[in-house]
Amino acid sequence: MEKNKVVSKNKKYTCMKELEIFNILTDTEKNTIYGLARGGLLKKGELLFRQGEEGDNVFLIQTGKIMLQKFTKDGTKIVIDILKPGDLICENIIFEEINYPFSGIALENSYICACSKKEMVELIKDPVILEKIFFSMNSKMMEYTQRMTNSALKDVQDKVYNTLKQIAGRHGRITNLGLEIDCYLSHEDIGFLVNASRVSVTRSINQLIEMGKLEKNNRHYIVH
Questions:
Q1: DSSP 8-state code for residue 84
Q2: What separation, in Å, do the N-terminal and C-terminal C-alpha atoms of the chain show?
Q3: What is the largest CA-CA distance in the chain?
Q4: Dihedral of the CA atoms 70, 72, 74, 76 (nearest 10)?
Q5: Whether the Cβ atoms of residue 195 and residue 160 lie closer than 8 Å to each other
Q6: Strand 88-89, strand 77-83: pairing
Q7: How high is the pLDDT of residue 205?
Q8: Lowest mean pLDDT among 30-34, 93-97, 173-177
Q9: Distance CA 114, CA 196 (A)
């Protein structure tokens, strides 16, 4: 996807102003945010941004899923995260003069909103919003550190279970059975996150269900 493809406006979507971090704002202030955000549809497989490009936009996923991936100097691909609707991407560029440290690619057709770094700097003058963005960044860093530790494990089953626990902690809701992950993850998606084949992931998930550690509710996983 060529740079800045996500620039059109579509009034069906409320984009940035519906972020939880902006709940403290008045309706007028939220509408100002909506005026700044630019939205567009990203087709499955298209790049939202490329590793190494100048970091000049913060993105919000309105619909769909975006995979963050990084290539090391020796060409090894590392999947950092799979993000869902409501997630911010690249909020760290607000505070640093950096290039994008990874690439973002659509795992399915996704509607994405973008806000320039300059515009975001104006929005975070409110100390409450600033605090919430710092909290979001810190939470992601802790989760990514845990995931790197998890990747050192040899057992695929342990990797799958630990990864789903982490995702449930961030994207889960409490039910009578446990934490239910509120977004659909395919076996291929999970394989990206744990660096394992789809077949290995399927086998591990079936074993975890038999052991009572996981359960499926329609297409969503419940972590016990």
A1: -
A2: 40
A3: 53
A4: -40
A5: no
A6: unpaired
A7: 92
A8: 30-34
A9: 32
Query: In which residue are the tokens 């659509």 written?
Result: 106
Strand ranges across the sheet with 47-49: 47-49, 103-106, 66-71, 77-83
CB 69 within 8 A of CB 103: yes
- In angstroms, the CA 199 to CA 147 distance is 21
For 110-149, write each residue's pLDDT tens digit: 988 888 877 777 767 767 667 766 676 666 666 666 666 6
Which structure tokens are listed for 16? 């940035």
How many other C-beta atoms lie within 10 A of the C-beta of residue 39? 22
Task: Please report, for residues 4, 28, 178, 187, the alpha-carbon distance to residue 47 in angstroms, rounded to integers and kept in the order given.
Answer: 11, 33, 35, 22
What is the CA angle 143-44-31, rounded to 5? Answer: 70
List of residues 6+ apart from 59 with CB closer than 8 A: 6, 48, 49, 66, 88, 89, 90, 104, 112, 113, 114, 115
Residue 192, CA atoms < 13 Å, CB-side half-sphere: 17
**pTM of the prediction?**
0.61
Q: At CA 123, angle to CA 117 and CA 126, rounded to 5?
A: 135
Phi and psi (nearest 5°) for 72?
-80, 175
